[in-house]
Amino acid sequence: MKKYNKIVLAGGNGYLGTVLANFYRHEANQVIILSRKPAASNENIKTVFWDGQNEGDWTKVLDNADMLINLCGKNVNCRYTEKNKKEIIASRVVPTALLGKVIGKLSHPPKLWINITSATIYRHAEDCAQDDYTGQIGSGFSVDVCKQWEKTFFDTVTPATRKIALRMGIVLGASDGVFPRLHNLVKFGLGGKQGNGKQYVSWIHERDVAGITQFLLEHNELDGVINCTAPQAIQNSDLMLSIRKSCRSLIGLPAPGWLLEIGALLIGTETELILKSRWVTPKRLLDAGYTFKYVTAPQAVDKIISSQ
Question: Which stretches does DSSP call E strand in 208-275?
Answer without folding.
Answer: 224-228, 234-235
